[in-house]
Amino acid sequence: MTSLKPSPVITDATGPSVSALAATGLTVRLGGRTVLDDVSITVGSGRVTGLLGPNGSGKSTLLQVLGGLRRPEVGVVLLDGDDVARLGTRRRARRIALVEQEAQAAAELTARQVVGLGRLPHRRGGWGTARDPQGGAVVATAMAQVRITHLADRLWSTLSGGERQRCHLARAIAQEPRVLLLDEPTNHLDLGQQLRFLTLVRQLPLTCVVALHDLELATAFCDDVVVLDAGRVMRAGPVRHALTPDLLADVYRVRAEVSAHPRLPRDHLAWDDFLETP
Amino acid sequence: MTAAGRRLPYATLFLLALLGLGLSAAVALGIGSVDVPVPRVLAVVARRCGLGDAPFGGAPVSLLEDQLVWQLRLPRVLGAAAVGAVLAVCGAVLQSLTRNDLADPYLLGVSSGASVGAVAVIVFGSGWLASLTAGTSLAGVSALALAAFVGALAALAAVLVIASGRTGTLAPARTVLAGVAVSYLCTAWTSVAVLSAGDDGAARRVLTWTLGSMAGVRWESAALLAGCALGSVVLFSCFADRLDGFTFGELSARSLGVDVTATRWMLMVATALVTAVAVAVTGAIGFVGLVVPHLVRPLVGHGHRRLLPTCALAGAILLLWADTAARSVLPSSELPIGAITALVGVPVLVILMMRRTT
């Protein structure tokens, strides 16, 4: 079994050192509703940034815009200085990978075939293995990294929720990206699988942006957080500094605080009660 | 449960299917009003390939044998195999592209559009068309086929205009609805046209055309169909990776570097065009495009690089035998080939669905 030792969370860092992703002035409207409203954020290179906020606050839309999968009406996203909207689909897919929550398969592939999908943006024209000579090895390494090598020949429909999400993670790793975007990847997983999954994510030497519902998981696994509400950035920064009691009261309508864990060398979230909506 | 353990290796299966197609063709060429044994069939083909009058010893090839096998049956067998391959491959591509198990090659209104053109010729005669095409050389293509092709293109254009809308992305749900809407409109027009003509012969000819027939296939149209079949297998195989990328939906495809909108346009228009050619020549043969991909997936899996060529072979074999049955079961008349594909296809599909757990 995977070690569940929580990774060290640097709560006292003053902020991201080098920004891998920098978004400025993102605005997205959907059918007259403003989903993102002048959002500007920077994501530190090699750090895990949590995207937090209540339902409908714009987390998924922001992830899609950050990944170049949706064009904002206004604003620009720079990945290491390049505009992601102008990268070209294949080049972009070699730099940014996405893991969705519970993506449904339309076809019955094996786990290895699903992970192999990650090699699509690396294939050149031509036939057979010559199109992607390292492909097989990269897929094998990715599967070993998330510990699903033993599932390689299993059919998708026979895998559990946790195994499927780890397949998706391996598929994303096989894309050999610099940035990994995850949209509520631990929804529908039991607690053990949630911890196992996020521990694997933390071990990756990648810049990660992960939309999360669970503030406790965000506190334990993220370096920085960005808190959205109704399409606006309410707070951004290291977890301890960002998730203050007044912010939690404003955005989530709860009386809660992030404090040092009584027993473990990390922070955790302690909540008292919910607040009546004004 | 592993996926690999229960299956034949792909290379073996593919070679078996190829061999099956060759054998089927040789046997089917001998079946008909006058039976020709398989060795004689091979002798005819070998002679035509320039191997001498009696290539395998024995009696020299007779004129009758040559006429039957080479002039009458071979174009038909070739045409049937080609149409089967085209329909099966297009069905597989469209099922993946729309993530819809019920998608078939006629999704974009091609068959109903073609029937508008065909009915126009059957009911109102081909004089208007002949005057239109006078002077142009259309070797082996009848006025009926030409009108059907034009009708199919018109329906396709209408569906694409409706489906692309303001975004131009050809979203699957919207495209399927547009196809259904245009199909109903075309069907309404053809019903009114046939009934108002008040001619029972015309109604019968329309019904026969609608169910499909290979009877009119000659060498020229067989070559055209074979070209369509080879072209579509090669073209769509080049898109196999991108089709795999659609497994987890549109967003996932885009994040894997697939240009979703361009791929949809390319594949939907290409499948509709080759289907339109097939429908124009042979009528709308149902069920092959819907069923064959479902039959083949359990054998070779869902990866398109294997699925598409195998679908082409399986579709070719199925339609080849369906046509052979259509022309030889009844001594005096032909059965509609579409009825035969349904008779064979429905039970197999039902058995597969019953065995499936999801």
- Rounded to the nearest angstrom, the radius of gyration of chain A is 19 Å
The rounded distance between the terminal residues' Cα atoms of chain A is 46 Å
Helix content of chain B: over 70%
Specify the CATH class of chain B: Mainly Alpha
In the CATH scheme, what's the topology name of chain B? Answer: ABC transporter involved in vitamin B12 uptake, BtuC
Unreliable spans of chain B: 1-5
What is the arithmetic mean of pLDDT of chain B? 87
Which stretches of chain A are low in confidence, meaning pLDDT under 50 for 5 or more residues running? 1-17
The helix tally of chain B amounts to: 15
Note the beta-strand portion of chain A. Answer: 25-35%
If you compute it from the alpha carbons, what radius of gyration of chain B comes out, rounded to the nearest whole angstrom? 21 Å
What is the secondary structure topology, with strand pairs?
The complex is a heterodimer of chains A (278) and B (358).
Chain A: E1 19-30, E2 33-44, E3 48-52, H1 59-66, E4 74-79, E5 82-83, H2 89-95, E6 96-99, H3 111-116, H4 135-145, H5 161-174, E7 179-183, H6 191-203, E8 207-211, H7 215-221, E9 224-229, E10 232-238, H8 239-242, H9 245-252, E11 254-260, E12 267-274
Chain B: H1 10-30, H2 38-48, H3 63-98, H4 110-124, H5 127-133, H6 143-164, H7 172-197, H8 200-211, H9 219-238, H10 240-244, H11 250-255, H12 260-282, H13 288-300, H14 304-328, H15 337-355
Helix pairs in contact in B: 1-2, 1-3, 1-14, 2-3, 3-9, 3-12, 3-13, 3-14, 4-6, 4-7, 4-8, 4-12, 6-7, 6-12, 9-12, 9-14, 13-14, 13-15, 14-15
Relevant terms:
heterodimer, A: 278 residues, 2 domains, four-stranded antiparallel sheet, B: 358 residues, mainly alpha, ABC transporter involved in vitamin B12 uptake, BtuC, disordered N terminus, ABC_transporter-like_ATP-bd (chain A), P-loop_NTPase (chain A), AAA+_ATPase (chain A)
